[in-house]
Amino acid sequence: MTAPPAVGAVSFDIDDTLIDYSASVPHSLRELFGPEADPGLWQALIDALYPRYLAGGLTHEAYLRTRLAAMLTALGRPVPGAAGLDELERRRRTAAESRLRLYPDVPGCLAALREAGLPLALLSNADGPRQRRRLDVVGLTGLFDAIVISGESGVAKPDPAAFGLVRARLGVDHVVHVGDDPAADARGALGAGFLPVLVDRAGRTRAVPPGVLRVGDLRAVPALLEHVGRGV
């Protein structure tokens, strides 16, 4: 592809955009809780607690412990102390990381963008050391010009300041952001002056806001950016 003049760089979300993180969750829960594990309940706990962590109401350590304690309580099991919860989380994380995989559309997309000479960045809402370990596991470390992780930077999507860090570290103005979350990624990028591309592999998002582009596969991104560059 030829680098589109209207696009100076591309940033990507990580979990469920590049790494199929959600597929690893049921396995890790079964390893920890057995056949009674309920991925739906686990996701409900994440939805309830993660915004508190992002807003600074919980430390990352407290978020992990509170989530596990709530799951154990819901299953009618005893809740251990802090050290016991930390050990359970270590086991859950190890089981999840053993199943982490890149989506098959990732390597071709990144290679095409690199061939076009576009700087690449990562922008993720996550704990820094854990997210960097995941990048190591799937072989993404070293492929990006900038990595911004909320646990390290102190700001999280959809805050425009998080996107601003990407722009500053890359030193370019016109950035495309690709992610799977309609709120944190698409609307966040739009509010920060980025061009948002929502990756919707399962076709779950019925409508996107004006100004947000949507793809079902990352292999469509390089061609899409060519159209953007030509003003098509």
Automatic annotation (TrEMBL):
Cofactor (UniProt): Mg(2+)
A single GO BP: small molecule metabolic process
InterPro entries: HAD-like_hydrolase, HAD-like_sf, HAD-SF_hydro_IA, HAD_sf
Example of a GO MF term: hydrolase activity
Superkingdom of source: Bacteria
Keywords: Hydrolase, Magnesium
Protein name in the entry: Haloacid dehalogenase
Species, as recorded: Sphaerisporangium rufum
